[in-house]
Design brief:
about 80 residues; alpha+beta
Length: about 80
């Protein structure tokens, strides 16, 4: 397994204070998706989690997982745009 670095970080706000986390790789994304996600269990959340894990295993490109993460973050109103 490897970290699967994204071409650009994904800025995601977490917690009540809206702390911004700049996720740079699939490993960081999996950690956030499993521990601190607002809309856990949605289709886009599960798709992002699956994609990030696949990227870490070399099954898909890191930026494919990044796109899935952006979709999930947007749905959960966590993406900082």
């Amino acid at each position: 397994m490897y970290e699967a670095w994204f071409s650009r970080p994904v800025p995601v706000a977490t917690g009540i204070s809206g702390k911004i986390n700049n996720l740079s790789n699939a490993n960081q994304a999996v950690d956030l998706l499993t521990k601190h996600w607002r809309n856990a269990g949605s289709q886009k959340h599960l798709a992002a989690l699956r994609a990030c894990r696949q990227a870490m295993n070399g099954g898909i490109a890191a930026d494919v997982a990044r796109d899935a993460l952006v979709d999930a973050a947007r749905e959960a109103h966590m993406l900082v745009e």
